[in-house]
Amino acid sequence: MTMANEGVPPIIAAQLNYLLSHSPFPMRVEQMWSGSKNEPWLDRFTLLIPFCLDYIKWDVMFNVQSPLSAPDVIFALDDEKFPPFLLSCGGDHTKSPLHILNNWNSRDPSRLLSFILQLRECYSAYQRKRVGEVDDERVKFEINTMLAREGIEMSLSSSAEKPEEVKFAVPLLDTNIHSMVPGCPWRHQQKIYLQVIYPIRKYQSAPSAPRLKLVSTPELRSLFSVEDVKLPTWLDGMCMAEYLPAVEDTLQMQVFGRKATVLVANGVFTFLVHFLIPLQFPKQQPTLILQSSQHFNAQGVPIRSPPLSEYPWSPRWELAEMALRIFEFLVEESSNFKKSCNEALQQR
């Protein structure tokens, strides 16, 4: 669900819509329902919040009979120790989730977002505390080696079906994706993460390599698949502080080194064409992004097209045939792009 309107009390819809449109990362509503059999209004919903390359689910419970009141939140059953942790979370009490609840202002549509973001920060601290208490010297060592890197999230998972695992989501900060993929006006910051999973083995003398996987944000995944990148080999005795620079170098060579930009003219209309060449080329065609050199938005930024990958293509064609088909596509698409640029200027 993207926006909440139909069946939702206006004062609650304002809070939820602000959250969905202003969150720094993509939250989603999984389901909505009414808390009263006698009221048709939808005043409760399950919120999916990205965390550590997964989602945590919290039930947000407003009360349609008291819409000016702050909501309650129900956490997952396996986070039963999180609510007590909240009582001591946060150094500045004026920014704590409990302070926001105690000073709830239903007429401020940003309150729900602020509340959820503060809860998420506390949840991250809660998971970090759980991981730090794990009886595994290797995990403790890895945490210490990665403390200098910002944005790392970690979580501890355990169940009756499988042994305990510690999962790290490590953002690859040296990879500035927005500057490397021109023409993509993403609303959320795009990142590539290295997912690192350590099984907890208290009595293992010779540690094995962790499970490693590259994961990107969904919008970035529509351009290329980082799962196809061949990761460097994990050597015996290695730690994450040694491994991460090699991963970033590999990304630079295998992914972000595969791009090109050309200047194209169709009559008096000139524009740039950015080619993003996938690892699967020529099995998979390049993604094209058009950027006008004559049209700019209100912020002075050149107008760009969305990523284009739906055009005739066959990996069996000769290279000359591939180039010709792209040229024919650009001839037709440039007219559409020029029209959309002119319309964008008229709407300013």
From TrEMBL:
GO terms for biological process: cell division; chromatin organization; double-strand break repair. It holds the Pfam family BRE. It comes from the Eukaryota. GO terms for cellular component: BRISC complex; cytoplasm. Keywords: Apoptosis, Cell cycle, Cell division, Chromatin regulator, Cytoplasm, DNA damage, DNA repair, Mitosis, Nucleus, Repeat, Ubl conjugation pathway. It is found in: Cytoplasm; Nucleus. Its main location: cytoplasm. Belongs to the BABAM2 family. PANTHER family: BRISC AND BRCA1-A COMPLEX MEMBER 2. This is BRISC and BRCA1-A complex member 2. It comes from Carnegiea gigantea.
